[in-house]
Amino acid sequence: KQEVTQIxxxxxxxxxxxxxxNCSFTDSAIYNLQWFRQDPGKGxxxxxxxxxxxxxxxSGRLNASxxxxxxxxxLYIAASQPGDSATYLCAVRRVNAGNNRKLIWGLGTSLAVNx
Amino acid sequence: xxxxxxxxxxxxxxxxxxxxxxxxxxxxxxxxxxxxxxAAGRGLQLLFYSVGIGQISSEVPQNxxxxxxxxxxxxxxxxxxxxxxxxxxxxxxSISHYxxxxxxGTRLTVV
Lengths: 115, 111
Description:
The complex is a heterodimer of chains A (115) and B (111). With 115 residues, chain A is an all-beta fold. Chain A is built from no helices and eleven strands. In chain A, strands 2, 4, 5, 9, 10 and 11 form a six-stranded mixed β-sheet that branches. Chain A has a five-stranded antiparallel β-sheet with strand order 1-3-8-7-6, with no helix packed on it. In chain A, strand 7 (62-67) and strand 8 (72-77) form a beta hairpin. Chain A is globular. The mean pLDDT of chain A is 92. With 111 residues, chain B is mostly beta strands. In chain B, the strands form two sheets. In chain B, strands 2, 4, 5, 6, 9, 10 and 11 form a seven-stranded mixed β-sheet that branches. A four-stranded antiparallel β-sheet of chain B has the order 1-3-8-7, with no helix packed on it. In chain B, strand 9 (87-94) and strand 10 form a beta hairpin. The N and C termini of chain B lie far apart (38 Å). The mean pLDDT of chain B is 92. The chains are: A mainly beta (115), B mainly beta (111). The A-B interface holds A 31-32, 34, 36, 41-46, 49, 51, 89, 91, 99-103, 105-108 and B 6, 32, 42-44, 46, 49, 51, 57, 59, 88, 90, 92, 94, 97-105, 107.
């Protein structure tokens, strides 16, 4: 059974710091892994998608890595800004065994970047 | 470009009343469509998914139902709402190896 864990659950940092959010999963048979951002009361915004054959993806100040063998992904945020404050969610897409295309979600890391 | 629309953004309904939430996708064909619920302090729960018109799979037995009358339209319904149906409802779509794209969500409060 695939389980996804995100550590830490909450993080508070001063503006300008580089930070790492962690996502671990128990079954390495994944199709891809996707990082999302959710602002309070809002929908989910996709940040980065890493296919199972890839090691990392970058977008601006964000870099996500994937190590399937160890069941880990990290989201690196460089030079954090107050506008980065949000909940960051990690979701793993299981290798299909039929028409079930279910994502397995972590509970998220709530990030606060203080001015 | 592909977009997803979800409405209404906020809804307050009395217990026992019906529900209809709508989601439409633009700029793509034959997407997989999903309804998720997010309860306070809990993770996202997949409620329904659809791989085509009229094809609905239910992940969790509940008071809700879903329909897909058109290729890019997905509707979440209930005949009689319960207090426990309160939550944040999210519609999403995906195609093949691409990731998921989510709508802006509907905050449902059942009173």
